[in-house]
Amino acid sequence: MRATAKAHTNIALIKYWGKRNEELILPTNSSLSVTLDGFYTETTVHFKEDLKRDIFTLNKEEITNIAYDRVTNYLDLFRNYANKQGVFAEVHSINKVPTAAGFASSASGFAALAAASAKALQLHLTDEELSRFTRQGSGSACRSIYGGFVEWEKGQRDDGMDSFAIQIAPQDHWDIRVAAVVLTAKEKDVSSRIGMKRTVDTSVFYDGWLESLPKDLQEIKEGIMACDFEKVGAIAEANCLKMHATTLGAYPPFTYWQDTTMTVMQTVQQLRKNNIPAYFTIDAGPNVKVLYLPEDEQRVLDKLQNTEGVSEVIVSKVGNGISYV
Fold first, then answer.
1. Which intervals hold domain Diphosphomevalonate decarboxylase-like N-terminal (predicted)?
2. Is 2-173 in CATH node 1.50.10.10?
3. DSSP 144
């Protein structure tokens, strides 16, 4: 009852921001992402009959408290499904994602944990079933089951059975690049979960955000299928700005941006003025991700690396889905 799985993180081009059910992690809107090859989590799960409790290490350090509880409660989903209640596991994860700094480390983390747990227990789940399980650990993680371009369908049912991710285009459909511009490795003042709930409950801009999403989603899918970079980039950038505007309309208001976040955004806008197509997107954190085409890589990287406040720029190509080690 042992397996090791590797999952890559993803960056949402159409953002997931809000839940209609907190316990099952059912979103208020559908979202769309691209899987990245540059950031990943590799997790080994070993269920053992003689263990008295779960053991969880992250980057070789034993984890306790809230993070431990989140993992052990998540493992219960698989134990219950496999009728293995009372069989505990050793979980060892190596995370190659800057944790809690806006790089969606939970996406690759829970996707790898789900895949390794399911294989260790020989559950033989379909990708759709695995995506549903993964969603219950971290919403965005359900998109990391697949490579390429992935849509998470919000679904309508109260039980969440129709809320899962599907691949809309494979890894080799389109060669675009994503530069992760690292500004800080500090943990966020407002976590994604808390910020999301505060926005849904209090933001005066939230209804407008939801109303705009179906059009964004439909048009960006058309752009991806046509490999229309300017269309995809413009929609992704505008969608990102709308999402972050909802946090300013929450009470109390908050933002994930720093001064350097704004500086990088302005750098990207300047690239476009110089006829270099590049677009930014930002998740719930200060760091910026920049979309660009392979032929413009050197010029984009030169500009980003020389921007004040940037500590590192990490390039990703379009990544693949779950793999087993």
1. 7-165
2. no
3. G
DSSP string for residues in 63-89: --HHHHHHHHHHHHHHHHHHT-TT-EE
Unique residue bearing structure tokens 């998540």: 74
Domain extents in the chain: 2-173, 178-316
pLDDT, one tens digit per residue, over 192-202 is 889 999 999 99
In terms of Cβ atoms closer than 10 Å to its own Cβ (0-12, 13-18, 19+), residue 70 is: middle
At 256, the pLDDT band (50, 70, 90 cuts) reads very high
User: What does the pLDDT look like over 17-51, one tens digit per residue?
Assistant: 999 999 999 999 999 999 999 999 999 999 999 99
* Contact call for residues 22 and 197 (beta carbons, < 8 A): yes
Q: Which of 70, 49, 47 is nearest to 58 (CA)?
A: 70
Q: How far is CA 285 from CA 49, 64, 132, in A?
A: 40, 24, 25
